[in-house]
Design goal:
The complex is a heterodimer of chains A (about 210) and B (about 60). Chain A is about 35% helix and about 15% strand. With about 210 residues, chain A is of the alpha/beta class. Classes of the chains: A alpha/beta (about 210), B alpha+beta (about 60).
Chain lengths: ~210, ~60
């Protein structure tokens, strides 16, 4: 489908004027590299098993996930609480981090299914690959890339999952349109993210320190 | 969401996922909550156009 959308549609915004996107990506990569290599540090968000418990991850799901992968978990929701994935489904995990959700998804879809995890942070991709190898999963691959230009073919996925990542995209519409591009018609989004109940002022939207916490 | 080609958007859960985090943050300042949401890619152009039309009428 060709989407003819523009900023005249209510609620649609394209990027943030005055925001240094490259600097923002660099700061986010630095933060999440620390989550990958030093997960026991104190962050402004919960991590690891404690976070998984807060978000009601089933212990059964975590049984398949290596402990080092769980330690670097830093999501804000639970995509699987929105519905279990079916055997044979194709799944894209955007901003997969250390790979906890990709590994859970790969277990759910089984050997006839396939999972692609995408993250822009090299340390996370490396850790995710190690986790999948340790879990002896052959139906999941990890690719370094940006959510705004996913390294995934058109209409490949039955489901797109993501967890705590969409809020980090300056151009939400571009990210959502990429999700739409890789999904089949009637394909599902199952997303964990955040919302703010008080509006962030324009100068705050340009403050990179605010984006990271 | 509709502008990007999705329909059936629903926030299914929201919760305070930052309470008690090791470091303080701006989360409380803006009432930040964790959420789970779902949506579905429109089946075809007609379904998307219908959803978009309803959005425009509501605005």
């Amino acid at each position: 489908m060709t989407r003819k959308v523009d900023s005249s549609i209510p609620g649609v915004s394209r990027g943030i004027e005055g925001l240094d996107v490259e600097s923002l990506r660099r700061v986010i990569q630095e933060e999440y590299t620390l989550v990958a290599v030093e997960p026991d540090r104190d962050f402004h968000f919960h991590t690891g098993r404690r976070l998984a418990a807060i978000l009601s991850y089933d212990e059964e799901w975590l049984d398949a996930v290596p402990e080092a992968t769980i330690a670097s978990f830093a999501g804000t929701g639970n995509p699987f609480s929105l519905g279990r994935l079916a055997a044979g489904e194709h799944v894209v995990d955007i901003g997969c981090g250390a790979g906890i959700d990709s590994i859970i998804a790969a277990t759910m879809v089984g050997p006839s299914g396939s999972v692609v995890g995408v993250d822009m942070t090299p340390a996370m991709i490396e850790k995710a690959r190690q986790g999948a190898k340790e879990a002896e999963l052959h139906n999941v691959v990890f690719r370094q890339g940006l959510g705004e230009s996913l390294p995934v073919a058109d209409s490949w996925a039955d489901v797109v999952i993501s967890n705590g990542v969409l809020n980090l995209f300056p151009d939400k519409l571009a990210a959502l349109r990429e999700m739409e591009r890789v999904l089949k018609p009637d394909g599902r989004l199952q997303i964990g993210d955040i919302l703010v109940q008080k509006a962030v002022p324009d100068n705050g939207k340009r403050d990179i320190n605010l984006w990271k916490g | 969401m509709i502008a990007a080609g999705f329909v059936d958007f629903e926030i299914a859960w929201r919760g305070d996922v930052y309470a008690g985090a090791p470091q303080s943050s701006s989360a409380a300042q803006f009432g930040t909550l964790g959420i789970n949401f779902r949506a579905r890619k429109a089946h075809d152009e007609a379904e998307w156009a219908e959803a978009l039309g309803m959005l425009t009428c509501d605005a």
